[in-house]
Amino acid sequence: MAARLEALRDLWELDQPTIGGWCAIPSAISAELLGVAGFDWVVIDAQHGLVGFEDLAVMLPALSNAGVPALVRVPWNEPSAIMKALDAGAQGVIVPMVNSPEDARLATEACRFPPRGNRSWGPVRPSLYDQEYAPATANRNVICAVMVETVDAVASVDDILAVPGIDAVFVGPSDLAISAGFLPSADPTEPVHLELIETVLKACKARGIVAGIACGNAGLVRRWRDEGFRMLAVPSDMSLLSDAAAQLLRDIG
Amino acid sequence: MAARLEALRDLWELDQPTIGGWCAIPSAISAELLGVAGFDWVVIDAQHGLVGFEDLAVMLPALSNAGVPALVRVPWNEPSAIMKALDAGAQGVIVPMVNSPEDARLATEACRFPPRGNRSWGPVRPSLYDQEYAPATANRNVICAVMVETVDAVASVDDILAVPGIDAVFVGPSDLAISAGFLPSADPTEPVHLELIETVLKACKARGIVAGIACGNAGLVRRWRDEGFRMLAVPSDMSLLSDAAAQLLRDIG
Amino acid sequence: MAARLEALRDLWELDQPTIGGWCAIPSAISAELLGVAGFDWVVIDAQHGLVGFEDLAVMLPALSNAGVPALVRVPWNEPSAIMKALDAGAQGVIVPMVNSPEDARLATEACRFPPRGNRSWGPVRPSLYDQEYAPATANRNVICAVMVETVDAVASVDDILAVPGIDAVFVGPSDLAISAGFLPSADPTEPVHLELIETVLKACKARGIVAGIACGNAGLVRRWRDEGFRMLAVPSDMSLLSDAAAQLLRDIG
Amino acid sequence: MAARLEALRDLWELDQPTIGGWCAIPSAISAELLGVAGFDWVVIDAQHGLVGFEDLAVMLPALSNAGVPALVRVPWNEPSAIMKALDAGAQGVIVPMVNSPEDARLATEACRFPPRGNRSWGPVRPSLYDQEYAPATANRNVICAVMVETVDAVASVDDILAVPGIDAVFVGPSDLAISAGFLPSADPTEPVHLELIETVLKACKARGIVAGIACGNAGLVRRWRDEGFRMLAVPSDMSLLSDAAAQLLRDIG
Amino acid sequence: MAARLEALRDLWELDQPTIGGWCAIPSAISAELLGVAGFDWVVIDAQHGLVGFEDLAVMLPALSNAGVPALVRVPWNEPSAIMKALDAGAQGVIVPMVNSPEDARLATEACRFPPRGNRSWGPVRPSLYDQEYAPATANRNVICAVMVETVDAVASVDDILAVPGIDAVFVGPSDLAISAGFLPSADPTEPVHLELIETVLKACKARGIVAGIACGNAGLVRRWRDEGFRMLAVPSDMSLLSDAAAQLLRDIG
Amino acid sequence: MAARLEALRDLWELDQPTIGGWCAIPSAISAELLGVAGFDWVVIDAQHGLVGFEDLAVMLPALSNAGVPALVRVPWNEPSAIMKALDAGAQGVIVPMVNSPEDARLATEACRFPPRGNRSWGPVRPSLYDQEYAPATANRNVICAVMVETVDAVASVDDILAVPGIDAVFVGPSDLAISAGFLPSADPTEPVHLELIETVLKACKARGIVAGIACGNAGLVRRWRDEGFRMLAVPSDMSLLSDAAAQLLRDIG
Ligand SMILES: [Mg+2]
Ligand SMILES: [Mg+2]
Ligand SMILES: [Mg+2]
Ligand SMILES: [Mg+2]
Ligand SMILES: [Mg+2]
Ligand SMILES: [Mg+2]
């Protein structure tokens, strides 16, 4: 695991794009399947996916076994959700609805032990594999990605990015669209919507922070990659499965 | 499902009373059983019932299959609990301990997408059945019932009801009794207790908001129905089962 | 626990009737609820109840905690199902569809260590509470009830009862009715059906073996108790709950 | 549900082909997703899928809610597995490795109540929706599909088909290939392999029994449909998801 | 259960030390095993242990059956986590990261019904065993232990202890060490670290509140017991198991 | 994983002893903990451990991640249990109560695809990691260990070993003791008991088949290793944990 996780940080440090898979199905075997599919990282979505703690506690070892860094999107910006995901072995978290520097501070501090934050000691699963696991190592390794996905958040994006400890900003285009008065859309076309996304990207670039985004299809992955996003999430397992079944039925005729 | 859910709103709009079943047992089959028993709606009680997220994620499809609208009483007034219940397919939530307009705003906003609230987009289960599922539809359909169950809440009931987006107020007579200095009671007899309940009912009537209440037995359902409550919950599956076993043993002698 | 279990054998040895609760819902809390309801024993129905091994492994401690002897009706007359139930702490098993002496031997031998049977050693849960737990004790304590529930089984009932190690015979009236060409019925009225039941009862009395039967209601418990049945099972939690909900809705009107 | 199930039998009686989805992931939400995808029926694969009884007990209500007939492929030709699947609400079973008339009799008898078989009475979930649920109805409705998937089975196919109560024969091309000395293949090309499949198809046609087959891709569905197969299973959710992820990564480049 | 729980309070009132076991493994059987091992109380660690609500809901009956008082360390100082643990039958909670009187008030009030707090009525499991279960009894019985485990918390320890309703203060030496700038350590040796611990102990003694601490080994239990700690927790099941396996492999050579 | 598994076969081919851990607790995290403890292989005990299929399906990825070959002791000599364990990714099985060549044939054939056996094709988890996974590879890799643990089995041990496809014979000393008329014992001292064990060992040596045995403590591991056993299982996680807790309490005093 360590190798792959270091690889991810290395890729980001070399400003290389990375592609992530997305688990919404609460199952170890579907997670493991995505884990071996070739993604650079995989998210377990405990926000909108139907995933509770017992689920992610068995999905994480499956993803580790697949040799891919596993992030958990926590249900909300809550210390307990963030810390439990990390104790269960997530290499990092994606924290939704970070709309202000205060929100960002809450998220980053939950990811880091003192003096950088207030994470509580008890790294039950990570320490199985690293007897020398220590606060400093953990603070270096754990990835904290915050979601900027409202108009308010974009307005404060520079202040948010100024909060120490943010490794990446992950844009949620659907929530951002709704917050801007549009329909949620996998394929942003509204100029205002696009401008909001670009604002986030520019702010990230200016600070050397990885910019990420949820992409509704392969074309969007390519497009945002070309623009400079380095953390590109593909549609969820449920979307892929649903589309594949529909396509198959069309192919059968 | 749509039909039955619309039927519930229709009944309420016609000022018709509705009866709800109550699931405290964390099991899909006991939920499905209550779902087909003839209730107008069924609650999965994730507050005092022994129900966690993994449980409700499998109880909700069972209740859908039974063709009955399913509400989730969330453990506490927390956005993550409310949003996860809705993403998993609950037609609405009952939010406990709403004691102030601020509490009410927190609850209603978690139930609705912008601009009416801050619900985050990702309606995983509802969108399986409605490819056109959109924020506006969701905002119209989702039922937000807030619990008024303390002396403080009753004192602020008018201000609470003034918060936009409350579909129903659900009275918790036991908590209200304790908060007023009495023993929790399924059958309110203390004048002060009764007066508190009446105060809520009147406030709801004045605003055209559905009033609901937990009823300890059939007689209380009839009584509160006659008084004007339109959302009448019967005792939980655990109470029914416990009473049925006791009665059976008495009948055997 | 020991006390209550001994009490059950004592009651049977004094030819006293005993009443049993029936768990079809796969849940520790509904099991525990029935466990404290006042029954002399409780069955976890892993045959027709929606109960798998993971379920019964958590229902058994709940029933132990309630202080009531717990039997498991296994899905079928299979050694693995019988032995796993006993290792998980069931005080005994009810084995369905025992239609011949060979079937009976298969069942009783799976319940007992050599030389009385072929149960394999590994009493994981029972030995938590009895460090002196030994094959001889186990062989004495474990209850093996076999179901006689087909016309063929009744025809062979004397040979079945002659198999050593049968503690009780449990009649399944519904399967017996179907096997005799009638509809499954909670309340046997067909003379042929009744005669089959009486045949089993007489054979049990002749050998001093406890006779048991599933009873569709309190009246049938009283009737079969008067006839001499000593192991009287009431309807399942699902039946009780379903009837209670229906009655409640009728009472509400 | 009844409508859709009748529709399936109707389609078969009109000699119309039907397409089935395949669940190997142990999850209610992925099952429900396939349930709404447009298939005529869906299989929960408890043989090679990672599905245990607790899993299928929550996947079945999800599939019912999706309005699609649900079959369970049981792990092996065992009465307990067949009967528990039916009690949990499966509309039918697919029984693997039916290699002889004796095997077929074991399978069909486990699906039917006396006098047609030896299924034991306790239809816990089906009777929730049909208070008149009776042995005769159940015997008519339950679908028993047996797998012919070895050289020996093909050699005995006429004797197997002569066993009363077989609704469909389902060919497992991979096992059949291995048993004939070939590699397991989603796309049979070996003449001997093809001939074995054709032999089964002809035997089914001669007896008016539905022939089914697992198809590795859309082209094979079309091909076998043209040949006269009427029960055409598509690749499992795991296959679809794996292929979709691989294709997506190729599309991204 | 009642007997043992009273015994715990009695021991504390007699100023007797008590030893507690620690469950981090999410399993009813390992909890039950620790429950019978001879500890005075056992904690289910839902903070750093891999334990979610569904897990603790089945671990609690197992611990009750073992006859030992069960505490739950909740994931965070949140009312929903505290109240759900108590409704599921925990005899008390250990609340992490109580750093101020405000934190302490939040914790203690969530443990007690009005007028002492804001716990909501619905004691589903406790009331199974005590039909007279009432707010006053519950308020007396429930144990609220708060964790003092940061430098800030120690600085405010007198104010924290002044909050009514604290039964015990539980020191987390690892978090305290990190907060003081040291490595987390099972065996505090840094004078500053030791002084912080002593400060808490003295404050507890001054107020007659039980002092507790997590102890990394038997020697530390003896040491802290001699110093006056009365709530001494041993290493978790995971630590014990890990050490035992390592020792065994060393013994084998 | 492949590396470690090959290492196990290599060790056996070099006649080197190997030590195995034993999981009776149904939990992915306790399995993973044993997986990293340094054993050469780990068994998930689905016979006497409280482990069902859903449990082992999540324990296997955890053990894979720990990098240790995982065997499953199946509940009984049944094809469905054996095949499901292998499809879920077990590197092999330990089959209890193999008392005759017929039993041995049933076990070995369930482990191997035709023409060597009758395993059915569907290696869901193994094929995630090996797209070239094929019957011949699987037949070579899968480990089939049969338990010789009765007097009858020892009497037939030569005939049992003559059955092709047995990789190892695993002695169950407790069952063997009971079958020989003794108490189950972790430390065989009865000459008759010891002689039975030696008979198995000699027969294995004569055929070049690995001999294995369950060892009650480190001393017995050394003793049996010196005698020539090459598959040495230590006490279960439950035993280790129970002993560790007892020792700790003694050390505390
Ligand atoms: Mg979002
Ligand atoms: Mg309340
Ligand atoms: Mg029966
Ligand atoms: Mg096959
Ligand atoms: Mg701490
Ligand atoms: Mg054995």
From TrEMBL, chains A, B, C, D, E, F:
Which InterPro entries does this entry report, sorted A to Z?
A: Aldolase/citrate-lyase_domain, HpcH-HpaI_aldolase, Pyrv/PenolPyrv_kinase-like_dom, Pyrv_kinase-like_dom_sf
Indicate the segments forming the HpcH/HpaI aldolase/citrate lyase domain, all copies. Answer: 22-243
Q: Name one Pfam family in it.
A: HpcH_HpaI
The organism's place on the tree of life at top rank = Bacteria
Keywords recorded for this protein, A-Z? Lyase, Metal-binding
GO molecular function terms noted in the UniProt entry = lyase activity
Transmembrane stretches, start-end? none
Protein family: Belongs to the HpcH/HpaI aldolase family.
The protein here is known as HpcH/HpaI aldolase/citrate lyase family protein
